[in-house]
Amino acid sequence: MHPREAATSVDSSFTTLGTGRGKPIPASSARYVAGIVMIAAGTFALAQGGKALLLTGPAGAFWPAGGLGIAVLYLGGWRWWPGVLLGDLGSLLWDVLSTELAVPVGSALAQAAGDLARALVAVIILQRLAGPRAGMDRLLHVGAVLVAVASGAAISATVAMLALRAGNVIEDSDLTEFWRSWWLGDVSGGLVVIPLALAWTRRPKRAWRGRGWEGALMIAAVVALSAIAMSAEQPLTYIVFPAFIWAALRFGPHGATLAVAVAVVIAVWATSNDLGPFVEHLPTDSALNLQLYITFAALTTLCLAAIVSERRHVTLELAESRSRVAAAGAEERRRLERELHDSAQNRLIALEVHLSVARDESVRTSPELAAKLDRLLGDAVAVGDELRRIGQGISPPVLATLGLAAALTAEAAHCAIPVRVSADDVGFSEPEVELAVYLCCLELMQNAAKHAGPETSAIIRLRRDASELAFSVEDDGRGFDPRATAPGAGLTGIQDRIHSVGGHLEIVAEPGVGTTATGVVPWPPRAA
Fold this sequence. Notes:
It is a single chain. The protein is 66% helix and 8% strand. With 528 residues, the protein is α+β, with helices and mostly antiparallel strands. It folds into 3 domains: 1-202, Orthogonal Bundle (Arp2/3 complex 21 kDa subunit ARPC3), CATH 1.10.1760; 207-395, no CATH class; 403-522, Histidine kinase-like ATPase, C-terminal domain (Heat Shock Protein 90, 2-Layer Sandwich). The strands form 2 sheets. A 5-stranded mixed β-sheet has the order 3-4-5-7-6, covered by helices on one side. It has a two-stranded antiparallel sheet with strand order 1-2. α14 (431-451) links the parallel β3 and β4 (458-465). α13 (404-412) runs parallel beside α14.
């Protein structure tokens, strides 16, 4: 019993289902039986569908039922094996009763044992190589599925070949061809069904958010290109691959597995009806062409989707790491502010008071000492002003109270060049984001004052657009050539600072024209 089911109370875990003697049947048992029936029905349906392209004996060119059994046991646990076995036995019973195949009962039972062994071995390999919850978002998962499916298919193909030869269903001359066809049919079916199940049991991620229309367009492209490839007289088999690439790049494993499944259904249907480029004079040749197409299409698309997903994971981890660094830096700045305000400034104020009292007392008795004390008092006041200026540069109080536009306007008033601030009502955001934009604009403003020339003027623009803030700092100074000038530590630092809060910054410059820096950052409302 599943731990969650076992943890439920006795009262809630039983329901009276109307047995003949009025005894209650455990609700968990009823659900388990229903699950077994559903798995058996699904296995039987896919097995019958796989028989649309029968080759020598009961070997199918495409066998999705094996992949379903592996996926069920891997995702749901070992307790569902009766459903897999019952569905397989139902399909084999069809072969036993068939006048065309007439598979002996003993051979059919041996096949069922081989099919169950295929699923069990494949699940064990998949768990060992990919862990308990593979999502097809890593190349390791794709490789693990391939190894598991190929190993399980080898067992099933070998057992079926020996069982059917013992039952005189196939001849000695057909053994090699039979084994190859069975193995490739299992592998191609598993590479379609298992990744589809593993990917879609996980919730689709941000790649699908707001892209429903694009996803529908991608599936329509797969259908249209597959239909063209299957109906054209010319060899256009791989015309559907651009749609596979689209699915993998834009939608990751979810889109890739869905696109491959749609294309495979069309290809199998067309080939089973003697349509399309895979049809040859010999059924085994038709099947081989179809199997190789499915296998390579699935592997190529799945590998591309896994690579894209891994890069996305790395990007997200890097962004989270930068956010943590930014948060730690902000906390350290706040600590320095408290230290400067609560410790250093208080001591300086006390020193100023003592020096002032000593100066006043020494004016009558020692004018020379009073003059020295007056100079010391001036130095103490200057040091206090410098500490206050440093503290405000770390995080000016006006930034927290009046907002980004007011803080930049206050700083622009003390800049060595004329600076104008043009801002909409941008409101308030998280302190780390506000500080990142403030320090970025401050650095760009100081760079313009240092390097753009004495006749330069600059303008800072702030514009809020929904949940983002667009900002720019533009000057009309002498500019520079980015290709001939290596970025300094200042520019690299402000770009890293903007990246750390999830934004991006672009600097465009041209000699004699000026420099423009534009950036966009997320702008969530400040928490109350």
